[in-house]
Amino acid sequence: MNISIIGTGYVGLTTGIALAELGNQIILVDLIKEKLDIIMSGVAPFFEPGVNELLSKHIRTGNIKTTMDGANAIMVTDMTFITVGTPSRKDGSMDDSHIRSASKMIGEALKDKEDFHVVVMKSTVVPGTTLGIIRETIERQSGKKGGSDLGIAMCPEFLREGAAMHDSMHPDRVVVGCIDDRTYEIMERLFSPLGSRILRTSPTAAEMIKYASNSLLATKISFTNEISRICEKVGLDVYEIMEGVGLDFRINPMFLKAGAGFGGSCFPKDVSALMNLAKQLDLDTPLLNGVMKNNEIQPQHLVEVAERTFGPLGGRRVAVLGLAFKPDTDDIRETRSLPVIRALMDRGAVVRATDPKAIGNFKAAIPDIVYSDDLEEILDWAEFVFILTEWPEYGTIDWGSKTHLSAVIDGRRSVDPVSMKNVKYWAIGSPLP
Ligand code: UDX
């Protein structure tokens, strides 16, 4: 199939590559020329394992092309995916300005198109957006009717950063929300080569499935972190406890790792947006409020325990290992390293930070601390170490030789406690020293 994709951010580019892998012809559309130039050189504008290799391959073969001319891309393709950003406003509500402008552009282009065209919403949006803003705008601009003259679908993205290509090619399920059979059949033909279960719903249900999935995953993490704080005081290891809990197949072992909390572009944004939707509907969300509150408590808790256990941090040299919100990405959105570093600075600690990929991005958030690429140098300088992202290289440090350190605080269980014999060490969710 010939497919145009509006928006070349994380979701747009990985979706384009995955659809090209399935044998489709892709045109990526963006308003920023520099971004398209980078993509055409075979390099993604973000770090994601495996993406550059596949992108280069499909650019070489001509399966992926780019353009700034959205209207023409729509004319020469059979379907258009909308993958523009849906950032949060200050009050947690969704900023729909990019969706509105993309829908307007698509509607105007479809006015002159005779063939049946399917518009697929892929970005995460508040339930009601596809049949509301998107459908209404496209119908108004094109003079055509969704569900008969043109197809409207919502197909949420479930990929994890750091595993984006794997998740795109091997999804647990593909949710297709649509209002007519013709559109569903086209979507089914597109995605059936993946071999995953395809679930047909309404567009609004598809939107809600995405919000509910991310909120439940975030809830599992916050629940684990709450149990973790109780375990620490009772003298138990939460990892052992959650291993036992996760063996119940109704629960499963995933997303039960205690840590400094969840970050990233999805969980905090989507939970907040769902809470905001409920508020507009005059509903309370005591559980989701608790999920977000737990996520704020956990970074502070890490610093408080460190100070209570190993002494005041004011004036001490503290190294922070890990700035990305998780390994294998340079993404720092909502990273828990931010509140931890702020809490350390508030206490007067002298902070230096390192990360294999995310220093550049993080500098914009906190410009006034020292950053270093040199892990050994920063460890030699430090008195205290906080590990906040579980990059594999932190597990292979020769910790036995770091006897000058006053303490290592592991916020992600990234090192083997056996290797910490000569160093004072405390890992989140383990008995308080
Ligand atoms: C998430 C969802 O997993 C994905 O399906 C959705 O489409 C987008 O949001 P992502 O944000 O890329 O993906 O990362 P994920 O691996 O889910 O981790 C999110 C955060 O939760 C990270 O900060 C991670 O460290 C934290 N986490 C995850 C935990 O603290 N404990 C866990 O057990 C799992």
3D architecture notes:
- The chain is of the alpha/beta class and 433 residues long.
- The chain folds into 2 domains: 2-201, NAD(P)-binding Rossmann-like Domain (Rossmann fold, 3-Layer(aba) Sandwich); 234-433, NAD(P)-binding Rossmann-like Domain (Rossmann fold).
- The chain has 16 helices and 14 strands.
- It has helices at residues 10-21, 33-40, 51-61, 70-75, 97-110, 130-142, 164-169, 181-191, 203-234, 238-246, 267-280, 286-310, 337-346, 359-365, 375-381, 392-395; strands at 2-6, 25-29, 64-67, 79-82, 118-121, 151-154, 173-178, 197-201, 317-321, 350-354, 370-371, 384-387, 407-410, 425-427.
- An 8-stranded mixed sheet has the order 3-2-1-4-5-6-7-8, with helices on both faces. It has a 6-stranded parallel sheet with strand order 11-10-9-12-13-14, with helices on both faces.
- Helix 9 packs across helix 10, helix 11 (267-280) crosses helix 12 (286-310) and helix 12 (286-310) packs across helix 13.
- The chain is elongated.
- The mean pLDDT is 96.
- Uridine-5'-diphosphate-xylopyranose binds next to helix 9.
